[in-house]
Design a protein that fits this description.
Shape: elongated
Number of strands: 0
Distance between the termini: 25 Å
Structural class: mainly alpha
Length: 180
Amino acid sequence: MKINPLLVKVPARYGLAGFILTAISFVVFYYVGLQPWRNLLSLILDVLLIGACCFAAIKDFKANYNNGILSFYHGMTAGFVVYIIVGLAFGLFYRIFIEFIEPEFLSNYIELAKEDMINRKDIIIKALGEESYTKNFESLGSTNASVLMVDAMIKKFLIGLLITPVFSVILRTHLSKKST
């Protein structure tokens, strides 16, 4: 079976568009003071943006490049290309943002994370235990840009991984079997 090279090329454009949109939303949330790494609205917007790009890529490939035919693997591959590009590009952007654009970002992040842990100390200890709380609180000081970059990438990957199969099933072509 020959794989259509457009199965990667077409979704790559949507992946780049998704990266640009998620980066813009991150920057806007950050400079408005809404802390996008801990804001539910930012997460919802990421889900919508990545979902829209995955859906558009799958639908575009099906309608314009594959004669209206889409198998499940076409959809999964197209979605995979989109969310991998969004995740990798955003991770790189996030790292650059933390290290060069806003050098105080990391120290602010650690400070806010420690405040959150202190405010939720009782809940965390009740759920995970005192030892786990202490270990996690102490490990916050060693958080670096690489850790945050990988965390952001994994979140983008997981969003795409959860959404892509749904769109692949919805958009796949059901070929009827002819009886002889």
